[in-house]
Amino acid sequence: MGSSIERSFVQQLQEHQNLIHKICRLYTNNEDAHKDLFQEITIQLWKAFPQFRGESKFTTWAYRVALNTAITLYRKKTRTISTIEFDNTLHKVNQEEYNYEEEEHIKMLYQAVHQLNDIEKALVFMYLEDKDYTEIAETLGISEVNARVKMNRIKGKLKKILNP
């Protein structure tokens, strides 16, 4: 890995680390698990970065890698061993502290979303991030129509959870 690739990666990760934090928050229940998942996603992004060709936006690509990592790797609790080369790169990213003191209604929404399945969580997450159905469909590998139908079902599900 050349230093220009590394610089590019660190810059992109720094700019978009909030989306990774949000995914971590969605798929974990405490700060330690959040940090572990954040590191795991960062490792997977770093490993996959040489294959990132810029055909899609960095964020679309990063969502796909991060969500896949959260859903598959992390859920199965299989860990990859981080290499020294990677650890050196990680220290170049100024990790912003993630604010856990969120308002009560956001906590309630997250509690409700935690009850959804993995794909539903991913869909809600991207919807709340103002992603259009084209990007949601592309990221999740489903059709746009399917994404819309699923989203409508999820909205109904969340209404029932939040207003029993």
Would you mind describing this structure in some detail?
By secondary structure, the chain is mainly α. It has helices at 3-27, 31-48, 58-74, 84-90, 104-114, 118-128, 133-140, 144-162.
In short:
The protein has 164 residues and is mainly alpha-helical. The protein is built from 8 helices and no strands.
From the structure above, extract its key features.
single chain, RNA_pol_sigma-70-like, mainly alpha, Arc Repressor Mutant, subunit A, 164 residues, Rna Polymerase Sigma Factor, Chain: A, DNA binding
Topology readout:
Blueprint: H1 3-27, H2 31-48, H3 58-74, H4 84-90, H5 104-114, H6 118-128, H7 133-140, H8 144-162
Helix pairs in contact: 1-2, 1-3, 1-6, 2-3, 3-7, 6-8, 7-8
Mean pLDDT comes to 79
- Percent strand equals under 5%
Amino- and carboxy-terminal Cα gap: 53 Å
CATH class of the largest domain: Mainly Alpha
CATH evolutionary superfamily of the largest domain = RNA polymerase sigma factor, region 2, helix turn helix motif
Order of helical and strand elements: HHHHHHHH
Shape: globular
Helix/sheet category: mainly alpha
Examine the secondary-structure arrangement and name the CATH architecture of the largest domain.
Orthogonal Bundle
Domains, number = 2
